[in-house]
Each structure stands twice: as structure tokens, then as C-alpha cells.
Amino acid sequence: MGSFKWINLFIIIFKYFLTITPIFSYSNEVPNFLDLAKEPQVFDWMVDIRRKIHENPELGYEEFETSKLIREKLDELGIPYKHPVAVTGVVGYIGTGLPPFVALRADMDALLMQELVEWEHKSKVPGKMHACGHDAHVSMLLGAAKILKDHEKYFNGTVVLVFQPAEEGGAGAKKIVDAGVLENVSAIFGLHILPGIPLGEVASKSGPMSAGCGLFEAIISGRGGHAALPQHSIDPILAASNVIVSLQHIVSREVDPLDSQVVTVGMFQGGGAFNVIPDSVTIGGTFRAFLRESFTQLKHRIEQVISGQAAVQRCNATVSFLEEKKPLIPPTVNNGDLHDYFKSVAGSLLGTDKVKGMEQMTGSEDFAFYQEALPGYLFLLGMEDISAERLPGPHSPYYKVNEDALPYGAALHASLAAGYLAKLHHEVLVVEGKYHDEL
């Protein structure tokens, strides 16, 4: 009986070294993905894709030509895919087609703004521009797909490529999740290219990374009249003014100072004459929080304060959170185990000194919808080369992408996916070995 157990253990160890070592240890049998991504046949290919997408920006759920280009490139690579997913989305598959599954995500949509950068590949669509790097995100994920497809034989599982529509306020990630294409996925990784971080470096953190985001709008109704006879009116401007001041008290007087939250009123519309009290006033704004429970409580208190303060001034208030147009985006919260894994992979690929921490950001990211459904991890990819130029921030009409960053994103995507499949396969073998040994 003892010899039988030892034979079983020998077989398990042999299977482990046969199947897992080549890719998980990044031995000489598997080329360095960063070196591959910098090769002209990959780098130039990514640059060409990025520029084509940049010239033809499309808004959320309108990315039909972008989606078509992605499918053409996947066809060239021999990568099967599902389409349409979430209107214009594409989901590709590399590997065995069997578990385990790990996903990589790129968003596709552009912004409603006029590009002011004069260059050969400037947006050809008036009033639309890729000003947040999503064109680069798509090209990097396709670059990773090209590399991974060439090394498919090393896989023990499947890489799921998620080309997502409508990140910019359209909650495209939620539609991807609702479509059910990620039901058996063990983890999902995503990146966002960003100026301000040096080229070749990455930044991220464990836990809350980006704030949850919501919008609100309130119509405060009173009774209009002549400004010289306010006693005959119910003044909604006065009521709205009290509402705005009281909303700021939520954060300053009710919230733990260590639990960062934001309430901002950015719109105030009411009245059209100097000597007339209007019937109603409309105000609107945004709110942010880093914890799900804080985000929910903040939304609740905003509605209470608006209604209550309007009532004090004898007005009525109708509050809307505009969720049918702009769904609430939950906080982006990075999985702790995936954070440790990311630091290990990125450190091996770039050098440990190139992997930085970061502070929380009050901007929002709909990658959070994936993280509510499965373990997920988002990181920032640097592209700043101060010896060349200082790059404007996202959502600027002068936004530029340093295309030298593309190989870093492609290599990180590929390394995270391939390594994670190997990690999962190793864990399965260890568990199987444990149970066999007990028999």
C-alpha cells in the first residue's frame, strides 16, 4: 500500500514538471513577452491599428467600425470570437477552450470632443476624439492576442479577450457581465494608459482604487411672481441655495474624515429675468465614494437633504439619479491576492523598481462591474517621456498617446494571462496530488 502511494506521488510530480514548468517559470522555452512585443512585426502592427482607430472615433455603443476592425484582426490571427456582445462588443478565445479561464479587457469608445492636435492621424470625425487612450487599449490587447496565439501550445486553459463598448458613462462592462460571457472566468485584468507615470513603469494598489460615481438632478418647485413682492411667491432659488449649502454638510459633518467622499453641484438653472421669481429651479451634480456602503449611504442622504431642505422653504423637490441614462458606477476595488500576483509578474517583466504604488483616485472606472462579479485587477500603465514632451491629461482636446508604451501594455497583458493560467493549473495539480496521496 505504501509503495502504491509513492508511485502515485511520482506520477503527480512528473505531470507537474511536464505541464507547468515551461510557462510558469518563464524558462528559456518561452521567450520574453516584452522583447516579442517590441519586435517590428508586433509593434508596427499595433501602431497601425491604434492610428486607424484614432482616425475614426466612435462613441459608446456606436463602435461598429472599431468592432469590425477588431474582428478582422482576430480572423487574421485565427482566433475565434463571439459577436455581438453588449451591442458592439467582441469576446475572443485563445487556448484549449476549456477551464480554467482568465480574461483581459480593453475598452473601445471615444469621447464627444473636438481634437485640437494637428498630426497625420488626427480624428476624421468632427466633434469626436479618442482622448482617453481607448484606441491604445484596443491595440495593446490585440498585440497581446498576437503574442499569446503564437504560444498557445503552452496553455493549460483559455484566455478570454474582452473588447468592451461604452466605458465612458455607458456602463458597457455591466452589459458584458449581464451577457453571461464571463460566468466561468476565474479572474479579469485590465489596464489604463496614463500620462504622468514614466514610460516603462506601472502603478496600482490593493483595495479601493477609483471612486464610485453617480449623478443627481433635482427640480425644486415653488411659486413664481414679481421680485418686488416676494411675500406672494414661494422662492425656489432661495430653497435651491439652502439645498446646495446643506449638501456640503453631508461630507463635512456626517462622514468619517478618513472615508473620502465628494458631493459637487455643477449645474444651477433657474429664472430668466432680473425682476421675476421663477416657478422652479433645476440643480444637478455628481457624488463619489470609495466604499460600496458609503456610496449607497451618500446617495440616500442626498435625496433626503434635497427633499427636506426644499420643504423647509415651502417648496417641493423631485430628485432623479439619472440611472436610465448614466448608470451608477460602483467603486473600483482591486483584489488583494491579484495585487500580489500583479506585483510579481510586473516586477519580473519590468523590474521591481518600475512597479509603483498609488493613491486613490476620485475618477471612476466601469471595470468595477467586473470586480463585483469576479476577482478583478486594474492597473495604470505609464507613457510619460519627459525628455520628449509633457503630455496633457485624459479628456483634453490636446491628448496624445506615446506609442512607445504599446509593447509594455501588450507584454503585461500576455504575461498576466499566461502566468495566471499556469498558476491555476499548478494549484489544481497540488490539490489533486493531495487527494491522491490521501487515498
UniProtKB/TrEMBL annotation:
Leader peptide range in chain numbering: none
Cellular compartments per GO CC: endoplasmic reticulum
UniProt entry keywords in alphabetical sequence: Hydrolase, Manganese, Membrane, Metal-binding, Signal, Transmembrane, Transmembrane helix
Free-text remark on how the cofactor is bound: The Mn(2+) ion enhances activity.
A single MF term (Gene Ontology): IAA-Ala conjugate hydrolase activity
Superkingdom field: Eukaryota
Matching InterPro entries: Amidohydrolase (IPR017439), Bact_exopeptidase_dim_dom (IPR036264), ILR1-like_Hyd (IPR044757), Peptidase_M20 (IPR002933), Peptidase_M20_dimer (IPR011650)
One Pfam family linked to the record: Peptidase_M20
Domain Peptidase M20 dimerisation: 216-308
Binding locations of Mn(2+): C132, H134, E168, H192, H395
GO BP terms in the entry: auxin metabolic process
Transmembrane segments annotated in the record for this chain: 7-26
Known cofactor(s): Mn(2+)
Family note: Belongs to the peptidase M20 family.
Protein name: Peptidase M20 dimerisation domain-containing protein
Species: Vicia faba (Broad bean)
